[in-house]
């Protein structure tokens, strides 16, 4: 099936839309997603799978669409050299303030300006779904700048879940929190597109009650101070529900891909 290529003006507007959106909410985003309960959620439910089997010591890692630096927060203590890239000037300012030992650059993940095969690992957490209709362009750029045998790790809302039905309604009804081009990632289409260039190592689905009431506190307008009173209990509940969920009943997917040493396009 041939793809419909958007007009150039729409493509430019897509980037500008996200830039303006995150310049407005960068401070609030860092407050909610960087608080101790959200960090604990990441450490318990996301990072063990996202980073599975990777030795980051001495490795050069790119945190794409980095925001305030949730990946830097996890990997700097492990000895990684982390570079953060975000299109929002406000987000990069927060990243640099929090992680002065890291390089922070205000750039687009569609055209990073890095030399080819520059990074051992590229990680994008909840960023790809902000790039529609240009997700493929971002993954092409990831493939260009990651080393052969290097990793591309990402965590995103995925198409095909029951929650995605509600997510579409939620996104449309709440323009203060979501930009107009945001939507879930169709992982099956993405995997077909890049099957000749990446090996797919990990695909894990997660996200239920703690994901919403702890990690998504900003979207649900839950005061940060409230979360410490119920987070531990909800973590236990989420742990018990998670094995029963599967793709259809999960909010998010975690993927770990590895760039092939050689592929048909070389």
Number of helices: 10
- Tell me the overall shape: globular
CATH topology name: Rossmann fold
Residues in helices, as a percent range: 40-55%
SSE string: HHEHEHEEHEHHEHHHE
What are the salient characteristics of this protein?
43% helix; Rossmann fold; alpha/beta; disordered N terminus; 266 residues
List the helices and strands and how they pair.
Elements lengths: L7 H26 L2 H15 L9 E5 L5 H6 L5 E6 L2 H10 L4 E4 L12 E7 L9 H11 E12 L4 H12 L13 H8 L3 E9 L2 H7 L8 H4 L3 H15 L6 E8 L7
Parallel strand pairs: 1-2, 1-4, 2-3, 4-5
Antiparallel strand pairs: 5-7, 6-7
Helix pairs in contact: 1-4, 2-8, 8-10
Overall description:
It is a single chain. The protein is built from 10 helices and 7 strands. With 266 residues, the protein is an alpha/beta fold. It has one domain (8-259): 3-Layer(aba) Sandwich (Rossmann fold). Strands 3-2-1-4-5-7-6 form a 7-stranded mixed sheet. Strand 4, helix 5 and strand 5 (146-157) form a beta-alpha-beta unit. Helix 2 packs across helix 8 (209-215) and helix 8 (209-215) packs antiparallel against helix 10. It is globular.
